[in-house]
Design brief:
Blueprint (H helix, E strand, L loop, with lengths): L1 E5 L3 H13 L3 E5 L2 H8 L12 E5 L7 H10 L8 E5 L4 H10 L3 E4 L4 H46 L10 H18 L3 E8 L2 H8 L1 H18 L6 E6 L2 E7 L3 H18 L13 E6 L9 H17 L5 E3 L2
Length: 323
């Protein structure tokens, strides 16, 4: 362990250094505050020497030891280094200022070997304990961070549809409740689009479930490219049904989005021999009210679902909006 001895009396500093070296300590001597601060890397571009303890005379020729102690404690790279002050007297005012500056102990001249070693051991022991606590705290913080990240990943996974990668029904329900309440408070419109893939069961029967899964993934990917505003949501509602929530969007805007979604599926040109259209298509229902005080999110779902059902009974591959 390296101990920095800062004393303008080179003779006393040398004697103290020799006494500490006998006990196995490595010592570095400085006779001015500037030289000591340079060793510590404070206010200097020189590489910082690894110092475990500073023994510092209260009286130095270029800067008071108390002010130097303050500089050590104010620097984040050295603030944990314990400082023991050297004083020629037990003047209470000087000692008070030293302790206020951050010194942890003091020794008086002339030095008493046993006392000096005992105080140094005590200071170094305290430093080791502080460093150990910091390491433990750092490990705890890292473990806590890892746990939070793992919990966040699990939470995201619990909100994600495993097949399509879109948000799932659980996330949809939470999102809609929150946005519906906000629309009610602010008296702003909120739009919902319910979507169903036309003739999907015949598609599965004709091509098999693996092809059906691939079809769902292609459509989900197409939808994700259309619904790109950060505050909008597209989710897999269940089976071959999807749902879109568009906060602060009226009927006209919702119809434009619904048409873009319908066209995105047509552009995929997924072959469907069991459909009268020859390709996979979707039917959509749109509702875009400004919620009243007594309205609920369930009523919005019911309205959009009813509109979608009307699209299916009216020939499919179309959009119906709630009037």
């Amino acid at each position: 362990m390296a101990i920095l001895i800062v004393d303008d009396d080179s003779h006393l500093g040398k004697l103290l250094g020799l006494r500490l070296q006998v006990d196995g300590y490595e010592t570095i001597s400085a006779h001015t505050a500037d030289q000591a601060l340079e060793y510590l890397g404070i206010g200097s571009e020189s590489p910082r020497i690894n110092i475990d303890l500073v023994i510092l005379d209260i009286f130095l020729p270029d800067l008071s030891g108390i002010e130097m102690c303050r500089k050590i404690k104010e620097d984040p790279d050295t603030c944990d280094i314990p400082v023991i002050m050297i004083t020629g007297s037990s003047d209470e005012e000087h000692l008070r200022e030293a302790f206020e500056a951050g010194a942890m102990d003091y020794i008086e001249k002339p030095f008493k070997g046993v006392e000096v070693i005992a105080r140094i051991r005590s200071a170094l022991k305290l430093k080791r304990e502080i460093e150990q606590r910091k390491r433990q705290t750092q490990k705890l913080m890292e473990a806590t961070k890892e746990l939070q990240e793992a919990n966040n990943r699990l939470r995201l996974m619990s909100f994600q549809d495993a097949l399509t990668g879109l948000h799932n029904r659980r996330y949809f329900d939470e999102f809609l409740d929150k946005e519906f309440a906000r629309a009610k408070r602010n008296r702003t419109p909120i739009a919902m689009i319910m979507i169903d893939i036309d003739y999907f069961k015949p598609y599965n029967d004709y091509f098999g479930h693996q092809a059906g899964d691939d079809c769902l993934k292609q459509i989900a990917s197409a939808f994700a490219k259309v619904i790109h505003r950060s505050h909008d949501l597209v989710a897999r509602y269940g089976g071959e049904e999807f749902a879109v929530v568009l906060p602060e969007t009226g009927k006209e805007g919702a119809l434009a989005v619904a048409e873009a979604l319908r066209q995105s599926v047509l552009d995929l040109q997924i072959e469907h021999p069991a459909s009268p259209f020859g390709i996979v298509t979707i039917s959509e229902g749109v509702a875009a009210p400004i919620p009243e005080l007594e309205d609920t999110a369930k009523l919005l779902i019911k309205a959009a679902d009813a509109a979608m059902y009307q699209s299916k009974t009216s020939g499919r591959n179309r959009i119906t909006a709630v009037e």
